Amino acid sequence: MTIQTVPSLVVPEAFSLWLDSRGLIYQLLVDFLGRAPSLSRIAEWSRNRQMGVAAEMTEGGRELKRYLCSQEPASLPQICEKEQQEYKRLMNNKAARPFIPREAAQLGRAEEFCNVIADVYASAGIVFKKCSGEADDHIAMELEFMAVMHERMLYNSFSVRSAMELLEIQERFLEDHLLRWTPIFCERLNAATGSPLYLGLSHMLEEFLPQDLQMLRAWKSSLESSSAAMV
């Protein structure tokens, strides 16, 4: 992916790989944690060269890369069927699943907590089209929010100031929401499955989110320094 930023938004080399990769990582997590894996999705991600580069950022990503890229094409339908069943067991079977992939459930909050997340989305000018009645605090919805904000920051920022505003929204969302409950979610997911796909996704999520927050803070500091130098 090419970083298509405006001239005023300079991306130092130290941040370019991270910025190239983070949108892909968020979308990969959304694709597999938000719906049962399809054959086309597994094939697409296993062949995605940019995703292969992005996966190297975490050990969990490397696990996922080894699993998806090591499969023979003829074996993909069988693997897809197995992982679809695992997704349904983990995410859809209310009677059997050991956890619920939602912030309110993981933190023991009331159902109305969903409104808090909806307000965050609305304040950022984002309205999601929900095809299956997804809850606003579902893991896939929260990760999708980060993916959308990333795209806006890179492609719709008209100045360093506007990029900083979008960066700060992502920073707060990681601090106030995703990083408060996904460690619990990942711990429970790790204990609940032996699937290479879902273990790889869980490990990737565990590693990537704290790393992403650290990089957001570092880039924010770099942008602030650059702006100060221009004054």
TrEMBL record:
InterPro entries per the UniProt record, alphabetical: DMSO/NO3_reduct_chaperone, TorD-like_sf, TorD/DmsD_chaperones
SUPFAM superfamilies linked: TorD-like
Superkingdom of source: Bacteria
One Pfam family this sequence matches: Nitrate_red_del
Keyword Chaperone in record: yes
Keywords, sorted A to Z: Chaperone
Transmembrane segments: none
PANTHER family, alphabetized: CHAPERONE PROTEIN YCDY, DIMETHYL SULFOXIDE REDUCTASE CHAPERONE-RELATED
Name of the protein: Molecular chaperone TorD family protein
Species of provenance: Paenibacillus donghaensis
